[in-house]
């Protein structure tokens, strides 16, 4: 799984610009302290992000090793590269929100209600 090329291009532009010190101070490592880990230079520590995903696959397809297509992977497993991008800059994840089975069994009103509840739970000051 990945993101569209247009979103990837946007991220590349934003992240490349932020490498000037606004989003991170390099990759975290230094020649003077080799114990510092790669990916520890993010300047957005204390800030959080939330991923909202939409799948055609039903909810049951995820997190179950008996389901052969995703092989037990969760939505967060599938979007691990995105999580690493955010982690590189010091951001921490909020619980991911996902809509499932949106083409063959869409439940738009219920998904909006679940999304509203999700936002209220994780971003209570955003009302």
Q: Can you walk through the features of this model?
A:
The protein has 127 residues and is mainly α. It has one domain: Flavodoxin domain (Rossmann fold, 3-Layer(aba) Sandwich), CATH 3.40.50. The chain has 4 helices and 4 strands, in the order H-E-E-H-H-E-E-H. The chain has helices at 5-18, 75-78, 80-88, 108-122, and strands at residues 48-49, 52-54, 92-93, 97-99. The chain has a two-stranded parallel ribbon with strand order 1-3. Strands 2-4 form a two-stranded parallel sheet.
List keywords for this structure.
mainly alpha; 127 residues; single chain; two-stranded parallel ribbon; 33% helix; 8% strand
Concise structural overview:
This protein is mainly alpha-helical.
CATH class: Alpha Beta
Structural class: mainly alpha
Please state the overall shape, judged from the principal axes of the Cα atoms.
globular
Please tell me how large the radius of gyration is: 18 Å
SS summary, helix count: 4
CATH superfamily placement:
Flavodoxin domain
Ranges with pLDDT <50 over ≥5 residues?
none
Q: Termini separation (Å)?
A: 31 Å
User: What would you say the CATH architecture is?
Assistant: 3-Layer(aba) Sandwich
CATH topology: Rossmann fold
Give the strand tally.
Answer: 4
Helix-strand topology string: HEEHHEEH
Tell me, rounded to a whole number, the average pLDDT: 94
State the oligomer: single chain
Summarize the main sheet: 2 strands, parallel
Which strands sit side by side, in order, in the main sheet?
A: 1-3
Strand content: 5-15%
Give the count of structural domains: 1
Helix content: 25-40%
């Amino acid at each position: 799984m990945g993101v569209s090329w247009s979103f990837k291009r946007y991220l590349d532009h934003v992240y490349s610009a932020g490498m000037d010190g606004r989003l991170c101070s390099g990759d975290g490592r230094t020649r003077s302290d080799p114990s510092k880990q790669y990916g520890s230079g993010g300047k957005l520590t204390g800030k959080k992000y939330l991923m909202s995903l939409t799948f055609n696959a039903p909810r049951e397809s995820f997190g179950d090793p008996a389901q052969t297509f995703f092989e037990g992977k969760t939505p967060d497993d599938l979007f691990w590269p995105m999580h690493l991008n955010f982690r590189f800059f010091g951001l921490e994840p909020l619980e991911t929100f996902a809509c499932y089975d949106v083409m063959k069994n869409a439940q738009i009103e219920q998904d909006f209600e679940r999304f509203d509840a999700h936002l209220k739970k994780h971003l209570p000051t955003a009302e």
